């Protein structure tokens, strides 16, 4: 099978992996499907050249450390599943959502914000078992210091929480809960609920759904530059979701509304979502013991120290991360 140039070096230099096909290409690299002859299973291999960017090097190292830490959490992606299904049944929706919430509860208890939840990063097998993927934008240790200023340019715009759109830098794990609401809406209506081409359109469609946020909310969460844009959007009245979406069960409409709450302080979290009537109608709410999950250490401060000579130090750190659990590239040797 012909291989893209991105992966030639990997498969030419060892016989552990067999190339099985191209999966996709993103902003930071390419991904292919491969068969691991040593473990006898299929894997995805991501090829990223992080030597050209200090920021990208930091993201890749952070992703590796987070994935190692979350090794035990619980495949077409959800987007393809949504596009191919003529109808998605309520119990299928409930089962998928239940698993997303379980996985996200684990992630949040470990002190991590995913920051890029969208259907493309939710993976399903033929039995609708869920895995959450792509931790390239994830951030650890988020609740250690609320004053910490974080980038608001995270999460694909259609799934981005209002506080991110408003450029509020002190956000929390609740941005992931808004993204879950966007994913749930996409499952229900089989199309992105907040699809837009511009920032203005994004705000307008959210305000149409949710009503225009209060002046207090805008004052507390919007940057000065964003306020000018926000006040250009027409005013919309809030319509309760149970009335707005009469074709879906009232419990489901209520849960969707709780995910898409403007105020992150009152937006539902994973614990309460797992106890919601829509979920508990079929599933027992799992007790997730925070003592079982040690938060990921915050390595970002050490990352910031290798700006000048980051190529050498990034290579060294990457080797340290991978060598601990490494297996031979050529298992027959």
How would you sum up this structure in a few lines?
The chain has 15 helices and eight strands. The chain has 333 residues and is of the alpha+beta class.
Describe the structure.
Pfam families: Pkinase. GO terms for molecular function: ATP binding; protein serine/threonine kinase activity. The protein has 333 residues and is α+β, with helices and mostly antiparallel strands. The protein has helices spanning 5-12, 54-69, 78-84, 90-109, 162-165, 174-189, 199-210, 215-221, 224-230, 241-244, 250-259, 270-274, 277-280, 300-303, 310-323, and strands at residues 17-25, 30-36, 41-47, 76-77, 112-113, 122-124, 130-132, 139-140. The strands form three sheets. The chain has a three-stranded antiparallel β-sheet with strand order 1-2-3. It has a three-stranded antiparallel β-sheet with strand order 4-6-7. Helix 6 packs antiparallel against helix 11 (250-259). It is globular and about 60 Å long. The two termini are 24 Å apart. The model is unreliable at 142-147, 289-294 and 300-306 (pLDDT under 50).
Question: How many beta-strand segments?
Answer: 8
The total tally of domains equals: 2
Q: How would you sum up the major sheet?
A: 3 strands, antiparallel
**What is CATH's topology name of the largest domain?**
Transferase(Phosphotransferase), domain 1
| Topology order in helix (H) and strand (E) letters | HEEEHEHHEEEEHHHHHHHHHHH
* Radius of gyration, CA atoms, in whole angstroms: 21 Å
Query: Strand order, biggest sheet?
Result: 1-2-3
Shape, principal axes of CA atoms? globular
Give the CA-CA distance, first to last residue: 24 Å
User: If helices are DSSP runs of H or I spanning 4 or more residues, what is the number of helices?
Assistant: 15
Domain Protein kinase: 17-279
Protein name: Protein kinase
InterPro entries: Kinase-like_dom_sf, MAPK, Prot_kinase_dom, Protein_kinase_ATP_BS, Ser/Thr_kinase_AS
Main location: nucleus
